[in-house]
Design a protein that fits this description.
Blueprint lengths: L4 H12 L5 E6 L2 E6 L31 E3 L14 E4 L4 E4 L15 E2 L4 E7 L2 E6 L4 E6 L6 E2 L4 E6 L2
Length: 161
């Protein structure tokens, strides 16, 4: 059995959208293990000499909502300590607007409310609208329109005040 990268990415996306906690796929010398919710340090690779498994990052938010963290980046100033970060809940392509000829969902300085769409991440040709979980003011947009983004990447900073 041979999985291409796009097939593997699609499989991981589908697994991530379910409540499956652990998934193991074995075929010949190929072995893939996905474990959600467990810290990455708890993973132990197989000892039978087969190819190593892959552990997915723990997921604490649904894919259709924006992950929000109150932890400031390590190099932030005191002013940034109060800011919340909007992070990518999946790997994909970041879009600020619903279509190329339409205005962005949010701009710096805009006030947002919970449930408001703040961007789109395209993954596997699916457009995933990301909704805010907090109210506040957008003070920084770190991702550029059309940029690829990684799971957990900071997309925006919000002042909850």
């Amino acid at each position: 059995m041979e999985l291409e990268f796009n097939e593997l990415r699609e499989l991981l996306t589908v697994i991530n959208q379910t409540d499956i906690a652990e998934f193991i796929l074995k075929s010949g010398e190929f072995e893939l293990m996905v474990r959600k919710g467990a810290p990455l340090g708890e993973y132990t690779p197989p000892t039978n000499g087969s190819a190593s498994g892959v552990a997915s990052p723990p997921v604490s938010t649904p894919l259709a909502s924006v992950a929000v963290s109150s932890a400031p980046p390590p190099s932030s100033s005191r002013a940034n300590e109060k800011l919340l970060t909007v992070t990518a809940p999946m790997v994909g392509t970041f879009y600020r607007s619903p279509a190329p000829d339409e205005p962005p969902f949010v701009d710096m300085g805009d006030r947002i409310r919970p449930g408001q769409t703040v961007c789109i991440i395209e993954a596997m040709k699916l457009m995933n609208e990301l909704e805010s979980e907090v109210a506040g003011e957008i003070v920084e947009i770190l991702a550029k329109n059309g940029d690829p983004v990684e799971y957990g990447q900071v997309l925006m900073r919000v002042n909850p005040g």
